[in-house]
Amino acid sequence: MARDVWALVHAERAALVADLATVSDEQWETPSLCPGWSVHDVVAHLVDTASTTRLGFVLGLVRARFDFDAQNARGIERQRGATPAETLERLRSVVSRTSTPPASLDTRLVEEVVHGEDIRRPLGISHKYAGEAVERALLLQARTSRSFGGAKELVALVSVVATDSDLRLGAGPEVRGTVLALLLALSGRRDALTELDGPGVETLAAAL
Fold this sequence. Notes:
Blueprint: H1 2-20, H2 39-51, H3 54-63, H4 68-79, H5 84-93, H6 106-123, H7 131-143, H8 152-155, E1 159-162, E2 168-170, E3 174-177, H9 179-186, H10 201-207
Parallel strand pairs: 1-3
Antiparallel strand pairs: 1-2
Helix pairs in contact: 1-6, 2-4, 2-5, 2-6, 6-7, 7-9
């Protein structure tokens, strides 16, 4: 149910706002797990995606000449405040929004969980995500093509086996780890590879 997705999304947004409230201005410039983006940039990106409507996404993509990277860069520029406090207030203001680009609503869970870790891990912040949110995000990534930010082709190379749930996907040599670590690795976060084990880890690493 869409209502269930939004409850999970809003809870994760609120949790991130609370975590960032204690972060110094200097820490906001820490490189995130997204290459080329600081923590501040990722927060601005989350504000932008939370504010994006279906029509707004399409119009923005046209203006960016169908260049997703350019569209994201414009969104960050648009939503990044002059100070971390300003950007944090913008994030706080969109916590309960239910606007979304034209895609599966579970993409909102991918955004909140993966980008939440892009921010938290470099800052040394631990957070316990709702298990349903992480698992739904992983399942979406597993059925989405890499050309759209997913990991369908990666799951075709290995068997993904969660150690903290009964989730099992794909075929081939096993890659074992928590659902969160698997989600991050399949989303291109190489830092999470050290949290995985099994004969398929080398195959997965080579394909990232």
